[in-house]
Structure prediction request, 137 residues.
Amino acid sequence: MPAERLLDTNVLLYGYDLDAPEKREVARSLVEQARIQPGGTAVSVQVLQEFHVNFVRKGHPVGEAAALIMDFSHWPVIDNTLAVFRLGLSLQPRWQLSLWDAMILAAAQTSGARELFTEDFNHGQDYGGIRVVNPFK
Prediction:
């Protein structure tokens, strides 16, 4: 069964950002929704990696980052495979994205999601059947 949405790294990070209380509340709501609706929200290994790096960079303990990643790993997780990488490579020039953003889009497509929750893409734009939602707008 496909996921309904894929969350990008920035959404997860805002869930723990004490400097952005409004965004934190929105992000926490999305994470809670993912927890109570198993299978509806996906993440990618890339998102989990980026979360770890940036969460620790902001001063949080490595162990706390690892524990959160274990929680997020209960959701559908899109692995970094050669097939996903090839898809990302094909999406990059089509949408004029960085490789990393193309890989997020490839993960969303692979998950079957119809929505990508992020603030890094154009809100409302349809990327080949995946609509971008900036939950902070």
Strands lie at 5-7, 41-44, 77-78, 115-117, 131-133. The chain has a mean pLDDT of 97.
